[in-house]
Design a protein that fits this description.
Elements lengths: L1 H21 L12 E11 L2 E14 L7 E5 L8 E7 L4 E2 L5 E3 L6 E15 L6 E11 L10 E7 L23
Antiparallel strand pairs: 1-2, 1-9, 2-3, 3-4, 4-5, 5-7, 6-7, 7-8, 8-9
Length: 180
Amino acid sequence: MKKILFTILSVAVALSSVSCNKFPHEGTATESIAGDWTCTIYCAEGNEWVPYYEADYMTYNTAANVPTEIWLDDNETFWGTKCKIDADAANLSFGANGKDYTDIYNDVAQKIFGGKVTKKGAIAPGSGSTVDKIEFFIQFSDDEEPYAYTYYIVGYKYTGFPEDNGNYKDDWDLPAVPAN
């Protein structure tokens, strides 16, 4: 019996050391800008931002797993945005000025630009945790007038703390409204 237990224990130790040393974990090419985001949406009215809506977004790698493209997805919590967009994971940025991206939820062209992730750039409102910040601008071809309104979307990365779930932040420092 001792011999059987010794053999089983030896095999378990050998397997655990092999799995830890020979198969290191590697992330995706876009992990620096990937995440689940709790966002506040502002709409430009003249030269001012007006609070408009709250939604959750996700950014994640494409099947190609390259640092030059990501999915931007609101899971239809706002307009219906699920677009494969340009990215620069090394510089923590995404979107392209003047480019139309077509979402796959509603087949609507959307301009997504000025996107960036700032590491440790936000404080989660419930837990007080320092987390990553996301921000970008978006315009929609199916708005009242195509591309007439610019929306600024800003948010913080999911913390996992219950006090942050659905707790949208409303005291962001807002940028200047971009010219159309």
